[in-house]
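Q: I have 165 residues here and want to know how they pack in 3D. Can you give me a structure?
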Amino acid sequence: MNSRANGGISAGDGKNVQNNPPRWQGVQSSHAGVSVQTGLPSRSYEETYTCICCPLGCQLTVMLQQGPAGLDVTGVVGYTCRRGKDYARQEATHPVRMVTAAVPVDGRLCPVSAKTAQPIAKNRMLAALEEIRALRVQPPVREGDTLLENVAGTGVALVATKTVQ
């Protein structure tokens, strides 16, 4: 199969053929109308994600450009709703996650389940889990109690999600 019959995609390697425009041609930059003159070369690339916002599981492709100021999302394709587009932009530039854990309660066999009050940066998850691992709480613990302030320097609290007497 030749590349023209396949919409500009080579059947062998899945890459765009140089003579044909990329499939996202016409997608607007997140900084539309803004021209940045830095004199430094920039690097453009794509990342793909599976959307987790709804049961559809759309395959999202995010076009990124690396410049001196950081990552710029130049376009997103493959989404079917606004939540998917927002998820792709967030995941590509600053991924965040809720952290859940079981915290031991002194004198009890059953630990208390806990979660961060808000999502934290993905690159801070390991540090957060190390702090949580060292934590032991005294009974009684009530649902909603703050078990740890400022988890891993993120400014986010760890809260209990159940009551343990």
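Q: Anything worth noting?
A: DSSP finds two helices and nine strands in the chain. Strands lie at 43-50, 59-67, 70-77, 96-97, 100-103, 112-116, 120-121, 146-148, 158-160.
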